[in-house]
Design goal:
The chain is mainly beta. About 5% of the residues lie in helices and about 40% in strands. It is globular. About 20% of the residues are buried.
């Protein structure tokens, strides 16, 4: 048995890039930054803050949610699979790219209370629909935190 599952909670680094194909399919690409806080060890050694950048790939019906609501600075919950692909650059060098193929993209509500394990579950109200929503369903507005995107350090 094997498992390939990634769960990330972080800030979107730049507005998503959406590509449409002749077949009617679409793919969205964006980056998410996750941070580990810096700390000081008991012996006085300081461990600096660390930011890790993740390439996110979204396809199918989730692209519509990303296109409408996900913007630079949005705090998102991403669940998916990690994949590495290779390609040759212009000089013939083999390059590798690691990407997260998202199965779920949701806004993350930082105001929610942690459960007994200390985990804060994602907000279900702002999740991407798993199938196309009925035409009468109103879109979910992004949380107020998305408006403060210009205050982010990236």
């Amino acid at each position: 048995m094997a498992l390939n599952k990634v769960i990330l909670i972080g800030n979107v680094g730049k507005d998503p890039v959406i590509k449409y194909f002749d077949s009617g399919n679409a793919v969205a690409n964006f980056t998410v930054a996750t941070n580990e806080r810096g700390y000081t060890l008991s012996n006085g050694t300081e461990v600096p803050e660390r930011t890790e950048w993740h390439n996110i790939v979204v396809s199918r019906d989730r692209v519509q949610f990303v296109e409408k609501f996900v913007k630079k600075g949005s705090l998102v919950y991403v669940e998916g699979k990690i994949r590495t692909r290779s390609y040759e650059d212009a000089s013939g060098q083999k390059r590798y790219v690691t990407e997260i193929y998202a199965d779920k993209v949701e806004f993350y509500d930082i105001g929610r209370k942690p459960d007994a394990d200390g985990d804060v579950p994602p907000a279900p109200a702002a999740s991407a629909p798993q199938s196309a929503p009925p035409p009468t369903e109103a879109p979910v507005a992004p949380p107020p935190a998305a408006e403060a995107a210009d205050d982010l350090p990236f």
